[in-house]
Amino acid sequence: MRTLLSKLSLLKKLHWLTWCVLLVTSALLAIIIVPGELVLLLPLQSRTPWEQECEKLRSATQEMAYAEDPRERNHATIVAPVISTQVYQHGWPRPFLARALVSRVDKGGQLTRVASEPLIRFESSFSHWGGSKYHDVSWSNYDNWPLEFDGWLIRPWYLLLDLLIAAAILGIVAGVTQWRMQSNGGLLRFRLADLLGGLTLIGIGLGFYVYHTNVQEIEHFGEDYSFVPGFSIQDGNVNLSTHYVGPQWMRKLAGNQYFLPLLNHVDSVSISTSDNWKRTYGELPEFPYLTDLDVRNELPLAAFDYLEACPRLEHLALPIMKRYSVGVTYRGDPLFQIEHLSRLEDLNLRSITLRGDAYFAEEIEEVALLPTLHQITLEGVAASQDQIEEIKRKYPAIEFFVRPDPQIFLYPTPASAVPIR
Description:
By secondary structure, the protein is an alpha/beta fold. It folds into three domains: about 1-30 and about 160-190, no CATH class; about 35-150, no CATH class; about 210-420, Alpha-Beta Horseshoe (Leucine-rich repeat, LRR (right-handed beta-alpha superhelix)). It has helices spanning about 1-10, 15-35, 50-70, 70-75, 155-185, 190-220, 250-255, 275-285, 305, 360-370, 385-395, and strands spanning about 35-40, 80-90, 95-105, 120-125, 135, 150-155, 230-235, 240-245, 265-270, 290-295, 315-320, 330, 335, 350-355, 375-380, 400-405, 420. Strand 15 (about 375-380), helix 11 and strand 16 form a beta-alpha-beta unit. Helix 2 (about 15-35) packs antiparallel against helix 5 and helix 2 packs across helix 7. Mean pLDDT is about 85; it is low at about 410-420.
């Protein structure tokens, strides 16, 4: 007890500037850790285990809301309330809390709860492209703070981890600030080491800015595309999708990823092969954050040389392969065929999409042998359900998703793929 009191007495000796820095740092950490972020409803095959748990929480909370007032489900009356459930996740660096919040707008006038509006919002930088009219600051929205909930899910160990990391940051900041004040003998006294440290930080910041600016120039952002979530180049043959790739804490502190346009980069590309396919595929290795590639039609076999050079490519959607296809060349260039599946071994893929009735059980099993693969999505393949079930039993580490043939338009638009489990 005496030891603890002696350590606490050290707090009285802290410089007033140290207390100010601690106060500001604590406020920033609170904004980063406490307010939640909306968990998006991603396709099933794109969800992490934590996002799957959040979706279960959302579904369970939604069912409870329907149980309280089943009119919306049964459409029994015209005054049925519009019920929507959103899930927010809280915590940094690891989310420790998921919180479900139900909003009801009763058309009959019996208002129970409506979603809150953010106190701070700015006009969307790409409103003329479509999408939201505003960019909201997430931490200025009441619903983002853990003040109300209709359902919740907590991970105590991650809560402890986040608290320990926050305490460590505060301790380091306080220690460095106090040491700086004591060693320099005052607030306005500077040494050569301070100058060198300041120049180092400025150099790191400039290097950070120049790197991301150069990458965006390579990615064809340009002035018109600096803020948009997606755009097309080469007469629409190449569609580029962007995503925030910077630190999570920086995005949470800013309140919206679009307030940090420098850190938005191309992570997904969809290609329709054209006459200048060599130029198109030749640029892909220069996209350092590219993870997803969707080939919409023919895939030149020589394009694999470029794909193998993509440093982060993890997800590949192959073009539709028809059983009786006769086109094996494009403008004289050989095209990827079923017999070329072995070329996939050098790509280090985590997931792949196989399309078309040229894929029988043998071909699917050949793809399942890829050492780095975790997920296979099948669209309109020739293998039967029983054959796919057998392949699944042989390769339990791989998750399979099945969709109908994308070329059969008699099918309704498929919802999220259903895992074979």
